[in-house]
Write a structure and sequence with these properties.
four-stranded parallel beta sheet; two-stranded antiparallel sheet; 5 helices; 8 strands; 15% strand
Length: 221
């Protein structure tokens, strides 16, 4: 993706997006985080289907996708099957709407039956380009928001699950996260990483050979 000029939106193409997804799969990515959306594309849909089905030697790469920020239906590609569609909640654990109590009335999380999980999407800290190219004069910003901010939180949680249980398939990882989530409102589930990790069996302890004893023992009379 690139911007045609200062202050202008970044743009890309479906073929570039597909190449990026394929590259991640070919490099053995366990999790692919997608904080973007756009018009439906068969090229992109086929790439995501390949990732979630054939990635990780057939176990499937976990594909997390931001639901979108227009307060409407879940956007493409979060509305595809085989992905984890991520909506946003605020810091009061409210679904992010135009009127939620966070005060950010200029955006609302997309919602719908395709949403699998919600995660915080208000007031998050992230890295930033310094000076003029960035949003702040420092290397950090504290106001990262949107479902684009919530999506990588879920992706990180999926990576934690796989660090403990790398044998799980992509649907199994999603099932663990969804089963451990907390209800938010009437139709959303908010990510609960601690409960998801606790639900997994303890990490196996490798069988190690007994330590080799070296040196000389001296008897003292």
């Amino acid at each position: 993706a690139r911007s045609p000029g200062p202050g202008q939106p970044w743009a890309t193409s479906n073929s570039v997006l597909r190449r990026g997804i394929d590259w991640a799969v070919d490099q053995g990515a366990d999790v692919i985080s997608n904080s973007w959306g756009g018009p439906p594309s068969s090229v992109v849909a086929e790439g995501i289907a390949r990732a979630s089905g054939a990635g990780r030697d057939g176990r499937g790469a976990v594909v997390a996708v931001a639901a979108g920020n227009s307060g409407g239906p879940v956007a493409f590609p979060a509305n595809l099957s085989g992905v984890i569609a991520v909506a946003a909640v605020n810091l009061a654990d409210e679904p992010k709407t135009w009127a939620s109590s966070d005060g950010e009335s200029w955006w609302a999380s997309n919602m719908g039956p395709e949403v699998d999980l919600a995660a915080p999407g208000i007031g998050l800290t992230t890295t930033d380009l310094q000076a003029a190219p960035g949003r702040t004069p420092t290397d950090w910003r504290q106001d990262f928001n949107g479902t684009s901010a919530a999506c990588p939180i879920v992706a990180g949680a999926a990576a934690l699950i796989l660090s403990r249980a790398p044998h799980l398939t992509a649907p199994e990882v999603a099932a663990v996260l969804i089963a451990a989530a907390d209800p938010v409102g009437s139709a959303q589930r908010r990510l609960n990483v601690e409960r998801a990790m606790t639900a997994l069996a303890p990490a196996p302890t490798p069988d190690l050979p007994p330590p080799e004893i070296t040196g000389r023992c001296t008897r003292h009379e």
